Amino acid sequence: MLPIVEHPAAAKEFVTNPDRSRWHDRALWFVRSKRDLQASSLPEWEYLRQTASQIKTHTIANLAHYLEQFEQNAIAAGAKVYWAEDAAEHNEIVLQILREHRTSRIVKSKSMLTEECGLNHHLEANGIDVVDTDLGERIVQLRKETPSHIVLPAIHIKKEEVGETFHEHLGTEAGASDPKYLTEAARGHLRDKFLAGQIGITGVNFAIAETGGIVVCTNEGNADLGTSIPKVHIACMGIEKLVPRQRDLGVFTRLLARSATGQPITSYTSHFIGPKDDQSELHIILVDNGRTKLRSSPTFRAAMHCIRCGACMNTCPVYRRSGGHSYRATVPGPIGSVLSPTRDPNSYKSLPYACSLCGSCSDVCPVKIPLHHQLLAWRGELVGKKLLPMGKRVAMTLASHLFRHPRLFTTAGAIGRLSLRVMPRWMTHNRFNKWSIARDMPKPPQESFRNWHRRHRGN
Ligand code: SF4
Fold first, then answer.
1. Of 90, 184, 266, 404, most Cβ neighbours within 10 A?
2. What phi, psi does 372 have (nearest 5°)?
3. For 142-189, what is each residue's pLDDT tens digit?
4. For the chain, what is the mean pLDDT?
5. Entry pTM
6. Residue 260, SS3?
7. Cα dist from 333 to 31, 146, 235, 255, 317, whole Å
8. Secondary structure tally for the chain: helices H, strands E
9. What's the pLDDT score for residue 435?
């Protein structure tokens, strides 16, 4: 994980490279447009969103009940179930299972939970060879980077850069950038890894309390390959992944792929209920890692409804231009900016401000999380915790005073309009006014809106 620094500083490199920033913006807007086409092709889209939101609200409200039901049914189906209070406990449980099986090589399909827990790092430090089998994840793993997006982990990397990485690690031709050629090379490379993998680790998209089954969605079939060759499957899931009944699942699978990549359905939606045969094992680890704390917050609890589709990132004007690494969090974008401060408000205090409050994230969220309202609420919390920088606190206190005193506001407006007309540029554009770094000051109007309105009232 990159060191945590405030969002504006972390975003600087990306936004001051206009080529990369524009290309990233366009790539994600393309995905967002595909999502719009899919959403508008379903007349029942809003009904599905409403239903999904209600199912999640009900499940999270009755979480203990559904977790117990899930555990009982998963055990009855032959799985072993573990509970991990935090990331360290989760990582230890995984390591313990690997040690019991004397395993040194694992294949792992995409799982943001294992990213959150820093599992790869922990296993590698204990001598385990971890291979991420999702193509994007494998690219960032070879480059020793972290995913910059929860669905499209390598979206920040251009195909020419993938060519360089594959040339260095997989021996492909120098200068190759043809996606088909590179994908074929990755496929060959990963086939060998699948065959050598002794244990398969996957994330979980949905867990069904009624059956004790889990569902993993991928577009590459890597979760299926990674769990069908090895005899042992370890599934790592956050406790919020539950849905009560099998029949609830269709609501979410219809929403997930459409919201994520603009596809009607993910290419592979794999169901696992118990181990696949008598010689196989299925281990399911239920991880809290701060989720119970989030659940206890009436303001931010709805963030637990997230199904990690990434739609809020694809639409966010800040994310699209500043890139996922600028958030310095496992989950970036609008939902990450809500989740990260719940873990550590001081380290992530800049994230709720990495937002224009345009509300586009809330509009696209398939489970109707009021993301921009939550980001605004976070700003209030941060002010209450006195975590804003002193300069901003003083400016906000002065602004609040100004807005509460109409006469002072009118006088300040008149002075502002006059001085902006006569002041030389260096007085408005200098290092103390960060707003002006990439902006010109607007031309001041001749009169205030209040005057204008008074003159035109009744016309
Ligand atoms: S908050 Fe909503 S839009 Fe964003 S990733 Fe989660 S489910 Fe998708």
1. 90
2. -70, -25
3. 999 999 999 999 999 999 999 999 999 999 999 999 999 999 999 999
4. 95
5. 0.92
6. helix
7. 15, 15, 26, 19, 10
8. 22, 10
9. 82
Write the pLDDT tens digit of every residue in 391-441.
888 988 999 999 999 999 999 999 999 999 999 999 989 888 888 887 888
% of the chain with per-residue pLDDT over 70: 99
Q: Which two tokens stand for residue 136?
A: 């994007």
Helix (H) or strand (E) holding 338: helix 333-343
Residue 54 CA to residue 37 CA, distance in Å, equals: 24
CA of 33 to the centre of ligand 1 (A): 16
The type of residue at 452 is W
Q: How far is the CA of 446 from the centre of ligand 1 (A)?
A: 45
Ligand 1 atom nearest residue 309's Cα:
8
Answer for the pair 334, 313: CB distance below 8 angstroms, yes or no: yes
Instruction: Please give the single-letter amino acid code of residue 118.
Output: G
Å from CA of 389 to ligand 1 middle: 29
Looking at the predicted structure, is the pLDDT value of residue 86 above 70? yes
Q: Burial letters for 111-122: b for 16+ Cβ neighbours within 10 Å, e otherwise?
A: bbbbbbbbbbeb
Give the pocket of ligand 1 (CB within 6 Å): 259, 306-312, 335, 364-367, 369, 371
Q: Is residue 298 helix, strand or coil?
A: coil
